[in-house]
Design a protein that fits this description.
Number of helices: 11
Structural class: alpha/beta
Strand order of the largest sheet: 7-5-6-4-1-2-3-8
Shape: elongated
Distance between the termini: 27 Å
Radius of gyration: 25 Å
CATH topology of the largest domain: Spore Coat Polysaccharide Biosynthesis Protein SpsA, Chain A
Largest sheet: 8 strands, mixed
């Protein structure tokens, strides 16, 4: 990167998707303020807020009144973390954008190292987890299985043990904005966009307070968002399994006919074999229909001309509004 950008004129946006995080927003902002004081550049925080049941909205409004550089984007209904992240990117204006969760499991202090990598010329800097404290063993094993599977079948390479904690150059953000996918998976979209990428390893902390807002079903949906749009392997496996079963049926039928002609036909074992085959084949057909249905449903959802999200309220700190006005004046000149 041009060293002339390593000045206070650089603006870095921090996009934070959140839902029911009233206890974490203030500590997050305090730590971000300390981090950017060390970096020495301008910064802003874009809170992409799903309508919450606690006082998260009120806490953020209070922080805006206290002078923190915040842009609060509140949606008309809950749209989930993946889409909230992409909406936050739409409302970011930085020369680089950092995406991070509000629960402080991802340490904001790592942003300084990520910015240093960005200054070296990398367009994408991804935080890679070396350890994950405070998380259930079963969840960790499922996450390992997901990343292993994704690595094997995905059309693009996504670094293992990485989440949405990353730094994206403004050029990368512009390209990601062009992917108007309803089931946007930031990790996959970043890989699809390309550009020079590096990773920064770190130890993930336990959640500061509260509990995760992603349910088991939500985690499964996120996993499907990572697999279905980025791989045709499940569909091809259906074809391969079908071909194998057809071949097995032909060979099995030939073997049964040959044995019957040589040793005589039994009145019992064909019925038992037929019953077992019907159960197995029925399960396989239903599973294949489910895989096919997942692709068809997502194709239908993408084809509908609905907005990805609806913003109910947009609130900006006065300092941000002034900066945007100045930028427009410069563009007009």
């Amino acid at each position: 990167m041009d060293t002339s950008k390593q000045t206070g004129a650089v603006l870095i946006s921090v996009v934070v998707p959140l839902y029911n995080e009233e206890a974490n927003v203030l500590p997050l902002m305090q730590r971000l303020r300390e981090v950017f004081a060390k970096i020495g550049c301008m910064w802003e925080v874009v809170f992409a807020l799903d309508p919450s049941q606690d006082q998260t909205h009120e806490r953020i409004r209070q922080l805006i009144e206290e002078g923190y550089p915040i842009r609060l984007v509140t949606f008309s209904r809950r749209i989930g973390k993946p889409l909230s992240l992409l909406a936050g990117l739409d409302y970011s204006r930085g020369d680089a954008v950092v995406t991070i969760d509000a629960d402080l499991q991802d340490p904001p202090e790592l942003i300084q190292e990520m910015v240093a990598k960005w200054w070296e010329g990398f367009k994408v800097v991804i935080a890679q987890r070396k350890s994950r404290k405070g998380e259930h063993l079963l969840y960790l094993k499922c996450a390992q299985l997901f990343y292993w599977l994704l690595d094997k079948i995905s059309e693009v390479k996504i670094p293992r043990n990485t989440g949405d904690f990353r730094l994206l150059d403004a050029r990368v953000v512009r390209e990601i904005r062009r992917f108007r996918e309803r089931h946007g998976f930031l990790r996959g979209l970043t890989a699809l966009a390309g550009f020079p990428t590096t990773v920064v390893p770190f130890d993930r902390d336990p959640r500061r307070s509260g509990k995760t807002q992603i349910s088991l079903l939500g985690a499964v949906n996120i996993a499907l968002d990572g697999i279905v749009p980025l791989s045709r392997v499940p569909l091809r496996l259906m074809f391969v399994l079908g071909a194998i079963l057809v071949l097995a049926g032909i060979l099995g039928g030939a073997a049964w006919l040959l044995c019957g002609l040589v040793a005589g036909f039994s009145a019992r074992w064909p019925l038992t074999l037929l019953a077992l085959l019907m159960v197995g084949l029925s399960g396989l057909v239903i599973a294949c229909m489910g895989i096919l249905g997942e692709y068809v449903a997502r194709t239908y959802e993408e084809a509908r001309p609905r907005p990805l999200y609806i913003v109910d309220e947009l609130i900006e700190a006065s300092s941000l509004a002034k900066r945007v006005s100045e930028e427009k004046q410069l563009q007009e000149l």
